[in-house]
Each structure stands twice: as structure tokens, then as C-alpha cells.
Amino acid sequence: MSPSEPVRIAPAGPEDMGALAEALEHLSAHMGDTHRADAATLTAACAGPDPACHALLARQGGTVIGAALLSPVFSTTKGCAGVYVSDLWVSDTARGTGLGRKLLRACARTGHDLWRAGFVKLAVYDDNIAARAFYDRLGFEHQSREQVMILDAAPLLETTP
Q1: Cβ contacts of 74 within 8 Å, gap of 6 or more
Q2: In the predicted structure, residue 97 carries a pLDDT above the cut 70
Q3: Which domains does the chain have, with CATH numbers?
Q4: Which of 4, 89, 93, 145 has the most CB atoms at less than 10 Å from its CB?
Q5: In the chain, pLDDT over 90 holds for what percent of residues?
Q6: Does the pLDDT of residue 1 top 60, yes or no?
Q7: Is 103:118 a contact under the CB 8 Å cutoff?
């Protein structure tokens, strides 16, 4: 990989799901998270007429150096659709080169093209000081009134009340 080679950011296709899974596994390992999204899971999520998410890959030459996973979100307070970036990964070798900003710009553009998205939303771990500083520099605003909450769907999908 040569620094003079241009970085290309493009939507991930079915043939890219293995590379996407590997990139997101690097992100999970870096964050100390469990990783369960293999290539088959990502293919199912990103494929079909109504995909649950979309993925972007950044390549320099033939090497994947960045990835983003995004999906639509709608805000009644903003009055428009937005892009929720659930995963953003930049390889160690590409950090500090502006690739994170370029990936977020590509997420915003993709969301605008697909859903007329007017904002970008993401979550960052409280203890990830470097990521928080990066998002602060880009102008993201901390939403102190909002706390992320997660519940496995199974209890809500049960047929008994």
C-alpha cells in the first residue's frame, strides 16, 4: 500500500461482506466488545429490497483501511430523516489521515441520497477519549438529555402477554 495511492470509499456489495466483517471485527476488538456479525449476518442485513443497513468500505489499493455501517433514523424533533452510524472503523495505519471525516461525509451523502437525511447521529463510549475528541472536532454535540437503552427483542416478541 503506497501513500500516493488514492483512497476509494464505495458501498459494500455482496462480494465485500467478508472484508466488512473483518473490518468490524477489528473495531469490536479495539473496543473490547463481543463480535457476532459474521459475513452471512452482514449479507442478510445489507441485502434485499429493504435492507436493515448499508455499509461503506474505504480501500487504498486492494487493502480495506476503513468501514462504516449506517441505517436510517427519523427524528420528529428535527422533522426529518437522519443517518445513524452504528459502526465506524479506521485502520491503525490510516488514523490521523482524515479518513474518519471522509467516511462520515460519505455516510451523510449516502443517507441524503437514500432517505433525504438531514443529520448524522452516532453513539460513542464515554471512556473512548480519542473518539470523543474526534467527534467534538467535527462539531458533533453531546446530547445530555438522551441515554442509549437496549433491550433484546425476544421478550417483546413473545406471544403471551
Answers
A1: 80, 81, 82
A2: yes
A3: 7-157 (3.40.630.30)
A4: 89
A5: 83
A6: no
A7: no
Task: Give the CA diameter of the chain.
Answer: 61
Averaged over 88-94, what is the pLDDT? 96
Query: Nine-digit cell at 145?
Result: 438529555
Surface-to-core class of residue 53, CB atoms within 10 Å of its CB (0-12 exposed, 13-18 middle, 19+ buried)? middle
Residue type, 46: C
Burial class (CB in 10 A: 0-12, 13-18, 19+), 81: middle
C-alpha cell at 159: 406471544
Confidence at residue 20, expressed as pLDDT on a 0 to 100 scale: 98
Write out the E strands in 43-101.
54-60, 63-75, 80-90
pLDDT band at residue 3, thresholds of 50, 70 and 90? low
Res 158: pLDDT:
85
User: What's the burial of 88, exposed, middle or buried (CB within 10 Å: 0-12/13-18/19+)?
Assistant: buried
Neighbouring CB atoms inside 10 A of 111's CB total 25
pLDDT tens digits along 38-66: 999 999 999 988 999 999 999 999 999 99
Residue 133 identity (one-letter amino acid)? A
